[in-house]
Write a structure and sequence with these properties.
alpha/beta; binds zinc ion; globular; 8-stranded parallel beta sheet
Length: 262
Amino acid sequence: MLSITTDYAKDTGDPSPYLRHIAEAGFSHIHWCHQWNTDFLYSKSEIEQIQKWLAEYGLRLLDLHGSAGNEKDWASSQEYQRLAGVELVRNRVEMTACLSADVVIMHVPADPESAAVRRSLDELEPICRERSVRIAIENGNFEAIRRLLSERDPQCVGLCYDSGHGNAASGGLDHLESLKDRLISVHLHDNDGTGDQHNPLFSGTVDWGRLARIMAESAYTKVVSMEVTMGLSGIQDEREFLDKAFETGTIFSRMIAECKRV
Ligand SMILES: [Zn+2]
């Protein structure tokens, strides 16, 4: 059982060819990452079509990358924009529930005192409870996230650890270690420490051994989920890329299982 992001090649347009290729490469789950940074609102007909594709290809939705939007921005200080942003996140919460999953991942601004995000979370909490979907805040600024998590019910808000963001900043794994009880989603990928490259696991400088140990002790109980993309991977062939992701994801899954046995 293994999960990969739907946007490994492209993050807008018809997702169906990529879903088919993901299934053919042997993955059981997907991290929905199409439209992750747009103002796109999914319609009922589109969500139903995605549901049909998942059934046809034998895939399951693990979690979904919500959108912090461009003009519909849940963290905006302009109230009309913030409300539109809440509508956008609400759309993704509904979509996630319709597709039988339970986590929507969101980015927050670096400002640890973002009052707008707090207000937006207050407004989203009822729908999250009603639909049994939690919001996972993805690591950018850990100081901001730590404060936000401390104020929020773990039944509604948790942490998404992005190993690439963590490796490009300092002390990512130390922060994760101290927040591992709140971990509900992972975006696994590698880089050389100089930026967010979304490369296959074990191709860069992420300390995968330590990450496996922390994940084994964390609240996260789902499958290994990779947010790897072809862009800077040096692999041009789609099938070769998916095979590489599958192979490295399988190795990392075994590393976590091994840590749990010890
Ligand atoms: Zn990510």
